[in-house]
Design goal:
alpha+beta; 7-stranded antiparallel β-sheet; 5-stranded antiparallel β-sheet; 5 helices; 22 strands; 28% helix; elongated; Olfactomedin-like_domain; secreted
């Protein structure tokens, strides 16, 4: 093929356009005896030629092009090869990028919702911490000596906040500056409470001695005041029934919150009564699980001080109790067996079931429970005469029945039928063989409104106002020696002193 052939020129121009990133391509005219032919050097790479450029400026081509090559065979035929860039659109990679972006967006939204939730929790506990700070400041400035219980209750609240902050730190992703700051403030609060407690411990016993001295003086004043007037009948001796029944009740004394916390609103508590050792019974606390039905854990304390300070407790698990109608008598706990009309006797020393018995025809599982208190169809009671159970049957159409039990075998010894509908009462207790029933007046008061005397078979109405700390009373247990009511009130443990009608000697 002759140099300058029109077909070859057209081919080279086409190749030049196809490799668009190479710029203008110059072709050099051959020189006789030269080893170059139309811009191709002897190494088969395009390079600068020795003649003028074809249809372009006269500047020499100073760069080599690596994406196409050319060669001339022994017959003078030009052969060219071109490597074109891959111009295919990468659709699969774009699709993968879109999917990845979608997944990341969902994760971000999820983490953002967590952050919002944590921010709300932090604001709530900031308010609690502020309230605690104010309380501690008041205690620090006040001249009143606080008991160990005051400090222990504050410690419990601080510990609950410490637990929350630890949980937040473990699950919080991202900046945790606010959480760290809260943790430091709570730690400082703990140290401050401990410091105040150490400063005040020396005053606790002194204040108690002063209170006892004041009580003694008050009694002396009352005695001197009564000189010259007819002698009033003495109060009934502990554990005796030498009186005319309950005529009044004191205001409540708040002992403390139950050891499991604010969420455990249902339960019972009291003191063991044994006729052989009436003044030596241990204290027991039996909060139900948060479902308000299952009695699973209970604690025993040898003294009231141990209960107040949450120390030296024996904690036991039974997992088959139901409702808050529990009572303790002679070192045995009496409960309603879960999901049945059976009653059981649990030995507190061994935490084992000593006896189980079916309570004949007793309604159960919320058929005739108390007003606003579920799962208490079967309610045990203890008084000077021993062990009782209050319940209803279908035959009694929901009216209360009182049965005296043999505390050893759980056999029913005798039964009395009342005219009082059980679900209209909020709770009951027994004193000297007399049933007393309460009902709700409002969120702060109850009324002892009904009695039934098993000694005479008489029943009637009463009007004794009973103040309370929270809205609902879940259980009432009477202790014959202390002559006190032990009331479980929405998680709080309350004490009441009973006032009896004094019979003339």
């Amino acid at each position: 093929m002759r140099p300058g052939h029109p077909f070859l020129l057209a081919l080279l121009l086409f190749l030049s356009q196809a490799a668009g990133d190479l710029g203008d391509l110059g072709f050099l005219a051959p020189t006789p005896g030269s080893s170059s032919f139309l811009g191709f050097d002897s190494s088969s790479n395009f390079g600068p030629g020795s003649g003028s450029r074809l249809g372009s400026s006269e500047a020499p081509l100073s760069q080599s092009f690596s994406n196409f090559t050319g060669s001339v065979d022994d017959r003078g035929t030009c052969q060219c090869s071109v490597s074109l860039p891959d111009t295919t659109f990468p659709a699969d990679r774009v699709e993968r990028l879109e999917f990845t972006a979608h997944v990341l967006s969902e994760k971000f939204e999820k983490e953002l919702s967590k952050v919002k939730e944590y921010v709300q929790l932090i604001s709530v506990y900031e308010k609690k911490l502020l309230n605690l700070t104010i309380r501690v400041e008041i205690m620090e400035k006040d001249t009143i000596s606080y008991t160990e219980l005051d400090f222990e209750l504050i410690k419990i609240e601080v510990k609950e906040m410490e637990k929350l902050v630890i949980q937040l730190k473990e699950s919080f992703v991202g900046s945790s500056e606010i959480v760290n700051q809260l943790e430091v403030e709570i730690r400082n609060m703990t140290l401050l409470v401990e410091k105040l407690e150490s400063l005040d411990k020396n005053n606790v016993l002194a204040i108690r001695r002063e209170i006892e001295a004041l009580k003694k003086k008050l009694k002396e004043c009352e005695a001197s005041k009564g000189e010259g007037s007819p002698a009033a009948p003495p109060p009934p001796s502990p554990g005796s029934c030498g009186h005319g029944g309950v005529v009044n009740i004191s205001k409540p004394s708040v002992v403390q919150l139950n050891w499991r916390g604010f969420s455990y609103k249902y339960g019972a508590w009291g003191r063991d009564y044994s006729p052989q050792h009436p003044g030596k019974g241990l204290y027991w606390v039996a909060p139900l699980n948060t479902d308000g039905r299952i009695l699973e854990y209970y604690r025993l304390y040898n003294t009231l001080d141990d209960l107040l300070l949450y120390t030296n407790a024996r904690e036991n698990r039974i997992a088959y109790g139901q409702g808050s109608g529990t009572a303790v008598y002679n070192n045995n706990m009496y409960i309603n067996w879960y999901n049945t009309r059976n009653i059981a006797k649990v030995n507190l020393t061994t935490n084992t079931v000593a006896v189980t018995k079916t309570l004949p025809n007793a309604a159960y599982n919320n058929r005739f429970s108390y007003a606003n208190v579920a799962w208490q169809d079967i309610d045990f009671a203890v008084d000077e005469n021993g062990l009782w159970v209050i319940y209803s049957t279908e035959a009694s159409t929901g009216n209360m029945m009182i049965s005296k039990l043999n505390d050893t075998t759980l056999e029913v010894l005798n039964t009395w039928y009342t005219k009082q509908y059980k679900p209209s009462a909020s709770n009951t207790f027994m004193v000297c063989g007399v049933l007393y029933a309460t009902r709700i007046l409002n969120t702060r008061t109850e009324e002892i409104f009904y009695y039934y005397d098993t000694n005479t078979g008489k029943e009637g109405k009463l009007n004794i106002v009973m103040h309370k700390m929270q809205e609902r009373v879940q259980s009432i247990n009477y202790h014959p020696f202390d002559q006190k009511l032990f009331v479980y009130n929405d998680g709080y443990l309350l004490n009441y002193d009973l006032i009896f009608l004094q019979e003339p000697q």
